[in-house]
Amino acid sequence: MMNRGSSIWKPAAALLLLSFANACGDAEADPSGVGGSSNGTGAGGETANTAGAGAGQDPPIELGTAGDYVILAKTGIATVPPSVITGDIGCSPVAATYITGFSLTADSSTTFANSPQVTGRVYASSYASPTPSNLTTAVSDMETAFTSAAGRAPDFTERGAGNIGGLTLVPGTYQWSTGLLIPTDVTLNGSASAVWIFQVAEDLTVANGVDVLLAGGAQPKNVFWQVSGTVEVGTTAHLEGIVMSQTAITLGTGASINGRLLAQSAVTIQTSTVVEPD
Fold first, then answer.
1. How many distinct structural domains can be found in the chain?
2. Residue 170, helix vs strand vs coil
3. What percentage of the chain exceeds 70 in pLDDT?
4. How far out from the chain centre does Cα 263 lie?
5. Is 41 a member of any domain?
6. Is-above-0.70 flag for pTM?
7. CB neighbours of 64 closer than 8 A, spacing ≥ 6?
8. What is the pLDDT of residue 27?
9. DSSP 3-state of 158
10. Which positions ≥6 away from 133 have C-beta within 8 Å?
């Protein structure tokens, strides 16, 4: 038997054992044996239906005063009633006449309106001061937030070749140079402080009846969908997070979201439920 007190212990043997130990240490540091990849695997590889461990350390996107609204749009907000909205909604630079289907009743202050579909206030640039100025700032903050989200360095690129149906995704920044399709349920699994940022160069489509689910304590306020094209959430589908579209957002009949709808053109909902995050 070899030991350090034996007369047959030799420097060469010691060197051999040291090399073996180093090799074992390297294997433990990366059990997959595969580093990150630009093909959606990210750091440390992945299993068949679960994205690999992303950095997950990015701070949330700062929304500024855009975060005061559950729906914010520039060219109009339309509902097919009855929808259920929890939080304030706002539209600028267009007037209140571009907020349709809400049966608005102006408040006596003339700075906002009320709607039976909105648990909150309805703001438009045509209402009395300080509403127009506040909305101008909020829209500017919305555009700044969109640019900030687009500028985050990705942990994963082209995940699922633009189809993430059936996957469980860890925290991190995901980027696609195409559109993104969610044809079946997706789960975002992470802690209460974990952040997801989805950068989509074209359209985001959530199919009818599909749920985007949160697990492990994940919070909708820390999920950001930065979409350069349109956002279509299908009939009875459910989405979580802050949706920032450079164009339009549409929720189909019975669709719902825990989060915010921030559109640089219009938002259209149809008997939908929109609830601002805590």
1. 1
2. coil
3. 80
4. 14
5. no
6. yes
7. 137, 138, 140, 141, 142, 144, 145
8. 37
9. coil
10. none
With H, G, I as helix, E, B as strand and everything else as coil, classify residue 259: strand
Residue 6 belongs to some domain of the structure: no
Nearest Cα to 63, choosing from 142, 170, 124? Answer: 142
Q: Are 170 and 56 in contact (CB under 8 A)?
A: yes
**pLDDT score for 58:** 85
Instruction: For residue 189, give the amino acid letter.
Output: N
- Mean of pLDDT values over 89-107: 98
Query: pLDDT higher for 236 or 56?
Result: 236
Asked whether 179 and 207 are in contact (CB, 8 A), the reply is: no
Token code pair at residue 80: 């097919």
The residue written with tokens 């420097």 in the block is 11
Question: Is it the case that residue 186 has pLDDT exceeding 60?
Answer: yes
Residue 67 has pLDDT above 60, yes or no: yes
DSSP secondary structure code for residue 120 in this structure: S
Residue type for 201, please? A
Bridging pattern class, strands 105-106 and 113-114: antiparallel
Cβ(91)–Cβ(74) below 8 Å: yes
Instruction: Tell me the three state secondary structure of residue 2.
Output: coil
Torsion sign, CA atoms 20, 26, 32, 38: negative
Is residue 128, in this structure, part of any structural domain at all?
yes
Q: Quote the domain boundaries for residue 256.
A: 64-275
Q: Do the domain assignments include residue 49?
A: no
Q: What is the mean pLDDT of residues 207-224?
A: 98
Least confident residue range of 5-9, 159-163, 246-250: 5-9
Average per-residue pLDDT in the chain?
86
Sequence-distant (≥ 6) Cβ neighbours of residue 132 within 8 angstroms: 92, 125, 126
